[in-house]
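Can't paste images in this forum, so I'm doing it all in text. The chain is below; anyone willing to post the predicted structure tokens underneath?
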Amino acid sequence: MKARLAAVCCVFALHGPAALAEEKEALFFDEEDGALDMSKWLLKKKGFLPVPIIITEPAVGYGGGLAAVFFGQSMEEAATQAKASGHRTPPDIYVLAAARTENGTQFAGGGAMLSFQDDRWRYRGFVGSADLKLDFYGGGAILDKDYKIGYALDGWFSSQQVLYHLGQSDNFLSARWLYMDLSSAFDSGRPQPLLPGAAFAMRNSGLGVAFEHDSRDNIFTPTRGFLAAADTLFYAPAWGGDTRFQTYRAHAFGYTPLGDSLVFGGRLDARAARGDAPFYMLPFLDMRGMPAARYQDRNAALAEVEARWNFTPRWELVGFIGAGRAWGNKQDFDTAESKVSKGAGFRYQIARLLGLWTGMDYAWGPDGERAFYVQVGNAWR
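Text version of the structure:
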């Protein structure tokens, strides 16, 4: 009996690690080309998944953190369910996350993305706290281009959204509530900006509706289709805010393949604020190469194009260029200066079965800014 047990232990010691290594190799390498690939692992993953957060935003500096993501079902289970029902429902996802950057900016919070009644209803929600360190450039005032003053926002926020799927179409209607309770403080060593009292509002509570169309062939790295949305939020003391104002956004992302190895993408994005909007909620140009909140005013609009060239089945090169204007306070659209950003990058297809590419972009901003961005999936949000 002891000899047989010893023999079994020897066999396990000799072959167990090898079998485990073979299992891992099969899980993390593609059978089709033998390349590193996370498809099977991501498709089969269920339960908790630790995800590193990498921050390279020039407005706050380099940083990082960790997210604990919980999947209610694996993507493979969701696909099997879709074959049976004829409709694909995304898996329920819960997340807890925290991160910090080199300038002291930090945040922590948790949220969820859920589906109900065979994807007739969807829920997206997040609650968290933040301590943001940013620079204010005047919010549209005509100032010296080198003018800036540091400020901090400290408090908590909540974003809650319910979406209704319109039949079997690619369209959704949604209702949203955004609440923030933030204190603001400017750098005491610089002259304070001359702003109306409402610009320093601490509590902002906005209710709104949105329409969304999503016909993209892939939510991670699309190659064809459109994502278009229009939304508005109405902030008022009646539902918990300090002041009354409105924010609007309309955007569209489109993708089309040109031949077998080239994908062309285009982006249009327009945002506006009306009423007594706080200075930190004025729209700004949100593009690679431009620090967050750098080019800011009552209105902001941009256009951007991107080309991706698959020079091998696993690798692609990316090039992009865009331009935008911010205007409204002291300049109209015709007199506002256009800001141009451009850059290049690369991608590796890390999950072929999911169509997920990851890589890095390097961008040149309009006033000498330089920044790189770690990308997982599509760069446009």
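The chain has three helices and 16 strands. Residues 21 and 27 are 10 Å apart (CA to CA).
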